[in-house]
Amino acid sequence: MEKLIIHGGHELHGRVKISGAKNAVLPIIAATLLAQDKPCVLDEVPYLNDVCTIAEVLRQLGAKVDFNRQQHTLFVDSTVLKTVDAPYDLVRKMRASFVIMGPLLARYGKAKISMPGGCAIGTRPIDLHLKGFEALGAEIEIGHGFISATAPNGLKGTSIYLDFPSVGATENIIMAACMAEGQTILENAAQEPEIIDLANFLNIMGAKIRGAGTNVIKITGVPKLIGHNYTIIPDRIEAGTYMVAVAMTGGDIYIENAISEHLKPVIAKLNEAGVKIEEDIDGIRVSCNKRPKAIDIKTLPYPGFPTDMQAQFMAMLTIADGTGLVTETVFENRFMHVDELKRMGACIKVDGRTSIVEGVPSLNGCQVKATDLRAGAAMVLAGLVANGETEVSYIHHIDRGYDNLVEKLCGLGADICRVDN
Ligand SMILES: CC(=O)N[C@H]1[C@@H](OP(=O)(O)OP(=O)(O)OC[C@H]2O[C@@H](n3ccc(=O)[nH]c3=O)[C@H](O)[C@@H]2O)O[C@H](CO)[C@@H](O)[C@@H]1O
Ligand SMILES: C=C(OP(=O)(O)O)C(=O)O
Question: What is the pTM of this model?
Answer without folding.
Answer: 0.98
